[in-house]
Write a structure and sequence with these properties.
Layout: H1 26-70, H2 78-87, H3 98-115, E1 122-127, E2 130-136, H4 139-142, H5 149-161, E3 169-175, H6 179-187, E4 192-197, E5 222-224, H7 229-249
Parallel strand pairs: 3-4, 4-5
Antiparallel strand pairs: 1-2, 1-3
Helix pairs in contact: 1-2, 3-7
Length: 250
């Protein structure tokens, strides 16, 4: 048994001085106290890291929501627009990069076109990482040959900015722009064009021809294709397959 009269404690480390004839080795007691302190310190550190991680996640989601709130359009509820922007399609957590994020918004516009039995092509225009306009193909709906998705988006962007020159704006479209749309893109001084799938029959950026290579143009655009290529291509293929099937059955 330990003689408590011979035990001397000193806070905070509870150092113990005792006779060597004691039945219990005081060093073991000291080591156990140190191990307990280290364990508690480790647990506290882990808890603090988890709390900081949750705070960072909350801040991240809030910032995304705040940006999304700006992207609503007239007639669209701000909260609905923001939430749909955050969780659109497979959700923002699955989006690999910012380009795919905007292309997914363009895909949503393409699905709107399909609802009106239009060729499903969608487009968005971005400035300073904010969507300033959206558009989808309305050629049949308006009975207007110029109402392609890109033209619709360019008109809305010009109206919103109060300027026909869309300097430092980026255009995202699900299908490679045609000759008419490419001309409008160049004339509006759009900086970058990102498209999903090529258009072998009517594409005017890389497929049928490349207007951007004309040497005497006073403005050239930066081009990048293949963003969500399969998704952008499949929605058009499925649309025409459905049209052919209905025509056959009719």
């Amino acid at each position: 048994m330990v003689d408590l009269k011979r035990l001397e404690l000193s806070t905070p480390w509870m150092q113990i001085r005792c006779s060597p004839n004691w039945a219990i080795d005081p060093c073991e007691f000291i080591n156990s106290q140190e191990r307990l302190y280290l364990f508690l310190h480790f647990v506290t550190t882990i808890i603090l890291i988890i709390i900081r991680g949750y705070l960072f996640l909350i801040k991240f989601v809030y910032n995304r929501y705040a940006v999304a709130m700006v992207n609503y359009e007239p007639g669209q509820d701000r909260n609905v627009a923001a939430l749909s922007n955050l969780v659109m399609c497979d959700g923002f957590c699955k989006m690999k990069n910012i380009k795919e994020r905007y292309m997914r918004i363009a895909l949503k516009e393409a699905k709107k076109a399909e609802l009106f039995d239009e060729v499903p092509i969608g487009c968005v225009i971005v400035k300073d990482n904010i969507v300033i306009s959206r558009g989808f193909n309305k050629r049949e709906l308006k009975n207007d040959v110029t109402s392609h998705a890109e033209i619709e988006a360019i008109r809305r962007a010009s109206k919103k900015l109060g300027d026909w020159q869309l300097i430092d704006c980026d255009l995202y479209v699900t299908i490679e722009p045609c000759l008419m749309c490419t001309g409008a893109i160049i004339q509006s001084r759009i900086k970058n064009v990102y498209y999903g799938s090529e258009d072998p029959k009517g594409g005017a950026l890389v497929s049928s021809l490349n207007i951007n290579e004309a040497k005497n143009l006073n403005h050239h655009i930066n081009i990048e294709g293949g963003i969500l290529k399969d998704e952008c291509s499949n929605i058009v293929k499925q649309y025409f397959a459905k049209k052919r099937k209905n025509k056959t059955l009719g």
